[in-house]
Amino acid sequence: MLGALMKAARRAQTKTPSLLDVVALLKDLSAHRLFRGQVGTVVERIDDETLIVEFSDDQGRGYAIAPCARTDLLVLRYIPEAA
């Protein structure tokens, strides 16, 4: 059981973000006043390495849009993936 959970967690960590994925920043983007852990939504793909992410408050009002490297984003999951 633990092995299956660890395998699923590893798979989730290596998944690269795609359009409309909910992501969290893994590092600060001080130029945009965004900090590690802030959550946003991928809204556009610039190239293989860069995505545009929109950051919104709890009411859905956008407060920042920033280009982010894929490697600086963690895809968030709200339901478990099938093993």
Number of helices: 1
Radius of gyration: 14 Å
Kindly state the mean pLDDT as a whole number?
A: 86
What's the CATH superfamily, by name?
SH3 Domains
Number of separate domains: 1
Percentage of residues assigned to helices? 10-25%
What is the terminal-to-terminal distance?
10 Å
Proportion of residues in extended strands: 25-35%
Helix and strand pattern? HEEEEE
The 3D shape can be described as: globular
Largest sheet: 5 strands, antiparallel
Order of strands in the sheet with the most strands? 4-3-2-1-5
Corresponding CATH architecture:
Roll
Low-confidence stretches: none
Describe what you observe in this structure.
The chain is of the alpha+beta class. The protein has one domain (2-75): SH3 Domains (SH3 type barrels, Roll), CATH 2.30.30.40. 16% of the residues lie in helices and 35% in strands. A 5-stranded antiparallel β-sheet has the order 4-3-2-1-5, with no helix packed on it. The longest helix is centred in the N-terminal third of the chain and has 13 residues, at 2-14. The N and C termini lie close together (10 Å).
Brief overview:
Helix content is 16%, strand content 35%. By secondary structure, it is an alpha+beta fold. The model has no long low-confidence stretch (mean pLDDT 86).
Q: Which key terms come to mind for this protein?
A:
83 residues; alpha+beta; SH3 type barrels; five-stranded antiparallel β-sheet; 1 helix; globular
SSE arrangement:
Elements lengths: L1 H13 L7 E4 L13 E7 L4 E7 L5 E8 L3 E3 L8
Antiparallel strand pairs: 1-2, 1-5, 2-3, 3-4
